[in-house]
Recover the amino acids of this structure.
């Protein structure tokens, strides 16, 4: 004989899901991962307090201050050029790491590795294309960012030194692009770099020495490829990250971005 | 012991001297009248204290005196308050008309304690206002690079051969301005001196430009000189990229074709 002993209606699927979500979000593990202000935290509401926590409690977002000047948010003022330069750097790092898995910096292997990457590796061609076009775009973005900053007079006190850091970053960007240019080891790479380094050799007093050190010999060869590879994937990124850190830190210390005009 | 800032000590000293020089009773009596024009004490409070004084004048004399001393005393008249308070004596000092035990002891002008120098700035929360814009920009850039890369392949020419010089041999596009200048100047001037001077001038720009204004209408000279140089540079890069063919001779791209690889 069956008898209804409990009048409560059976929980619907939706109730069960909600209960599960609540239990998960209320668990110690969950709330230890998502700090206050995270939109994934239980009981998140869009309040000024939580908007502040989003920035303060995030390792990535706290590059930014909690609040910024209203005019600084206008896309028409910055055109996002500085941010896009940084974003392209990250995109290039990600795609570059992918490429490193399939590339050996040796004169006998480099070109074949690139060709195999394009023909035999899943998404190899796509990622190489993204790396190449991203690099050109980054040079362009950094250059336009410099022009934007100049036309806004943003290099004026107290931001003089950050402008200097910016010029160094522009130079490092050009060097990163130029060192990467050699790596495919095709005719375009070899002769573009030959033209570039020949000009370097005309530096007064120590031109020949600079060229010798950079090429690892009198002419471009396997040693050059290894040197430029290390410069491209380790040395220059390391240096540019340090300068970028100073650059972003100074933006905040100098009172946020300049303006309004 | 807490260290008291220099300027606060000075201000306290000045206030003490002022209180000593003016007769305390006068100060208490005059305060409402003279402060009406310049004091920062709200009108309503002054009126209330005057009314309280008037009502007490009919009652207990000693309470009235204390009320007068305490009701309108401001920070500058601390001396007056201190000397006046004991005059109230006994227990009922604080007892108001309704038997209230709280009363207005003193109104401290905001300027006498803190002087806020910062001007308020119109600010918005970084999240969502800035982060949303950045996120969209990053997505758009990713989408552009991704789609462009699907349709346009990066060049991969023949294996490098040091014995076969392509004609023309060109540097990467951002150096083509320099290569273009090689046709006009000695390599040391075109390849080292001019770019070196250019970078040094760029670095020195903030120290050379002594004009403090950031308004475009005040910066016509700086803007023009930068524009001239940027345009000069862009034109050189374009000529080097598109108008130079075999032997780095001048060609027209629509006649002889493109000699340019990215």
């Amino acid at each position: 004989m069956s008898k209804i002993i409990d009048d409560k209606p059976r929980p619907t699927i939706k109730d069960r899901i909600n209960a599960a979500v609540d239990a998960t979000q209320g668990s110690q593990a969950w709330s230890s991962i998502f700090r206050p202000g995270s939109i994934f935290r239980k009981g998140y509401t869009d309040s000024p307090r939580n908007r502040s926590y989003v920035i303060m409690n995030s390792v990535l977002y706290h590059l930014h201050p909690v609040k910024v000047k209203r005019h600084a948010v206008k896309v028409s003022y910055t055109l996002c050029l500085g941010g896009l330069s940084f974003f392209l750097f990250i995109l290039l790092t990600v795609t570059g790491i992918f490429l490193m898995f399939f590339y050996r910096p040796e004169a006998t292997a480099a070109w074949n590795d690139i060709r195999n990457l394009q023909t035999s590796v899943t998404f190899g061609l796509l990622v190489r294309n993204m790396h190449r076009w991203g690099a050109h775009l980054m040079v362009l973005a950094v250059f336009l960012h410099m022009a934007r900053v100049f036309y806004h007079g943003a290099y004026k006190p107290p931001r003089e030194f950050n402008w200097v850091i910016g010029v160094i970053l522009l130079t490092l960007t050009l060097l990163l692009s130029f060192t990467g240019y050699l790596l495919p080891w095709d005719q375009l790479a070899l002769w573009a770099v030959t033209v570039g380094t020949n000009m370097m050799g005309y530096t007064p007093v120590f031109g020949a020495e600079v060229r010798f050190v950079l090429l690892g010999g009198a002419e471009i060869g396997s040693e050059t490829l290894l040197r430029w590879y290390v410069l491209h994937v380790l040395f220059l990124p390391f240096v540019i990250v340090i300068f970028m850190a100073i650059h972003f830190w100074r933006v905040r210390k100098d009172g946020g971005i300049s303006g309004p005009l | 012991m807490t260290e008291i800032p220099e300027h606060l000590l000075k201000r306290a000293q000045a206030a003490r001297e002022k209180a000593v020089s003016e007769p305390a009773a006068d100060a208490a009596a005059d305060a409402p009248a003279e402060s009406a024009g310049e004091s920062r004490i709200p009108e309503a409070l002054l009126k209330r204290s005057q009314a309280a004084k008037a009502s007490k004048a009919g009652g207990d004399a000693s309470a009235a005196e204390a009320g007068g001393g305490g009701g309108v005393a401001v920070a500058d008249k601390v001396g007056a308050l201190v000397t006046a308070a004991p005059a109230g004596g006994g227990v009922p000092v604080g007892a108001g008309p309704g038997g209230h035990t709280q009363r207005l002891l003193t109104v401290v002008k905001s300027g006498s304690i803190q002087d806020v120098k910062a001007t308020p700035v119109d600010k918005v929360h970084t999240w969502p206002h800035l982060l949303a814009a950045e996120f969209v920009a990053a997505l758009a850039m990713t989408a552009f690079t991704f789609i462009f890369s699907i349709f346009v392949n990066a060049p991969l020419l023949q294996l490098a051969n040091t014995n076969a010089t392509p004609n023309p041999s060109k540097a990467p596009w951002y150096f083509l301005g320099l290569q273009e200048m090689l046709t006009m100047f000695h390599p040391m001037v075109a390849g080292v001196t001019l770019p070196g001077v250019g970078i040094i001038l760029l670095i020195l720009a903030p120290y050379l430009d002594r004009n403090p204004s950031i308004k475009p209408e005040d910066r016509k000279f700086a803007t023009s000189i930068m524009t001239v140089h940027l345009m000069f540079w862009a034109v050189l890069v374009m000529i080097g990229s598109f108008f130079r063919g075999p032997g780095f001779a001048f060609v027209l791209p629509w006649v002889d074709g493109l000699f340019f690889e990215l």
Summary: The CA atoms of residues 154 and 262 of chain B lie 8 Å apart. Chain B has eleven helices and one strand. Chain B has three domains: 6-113, 124-153, 159-256. The mean pLDDT of chain B is 80.
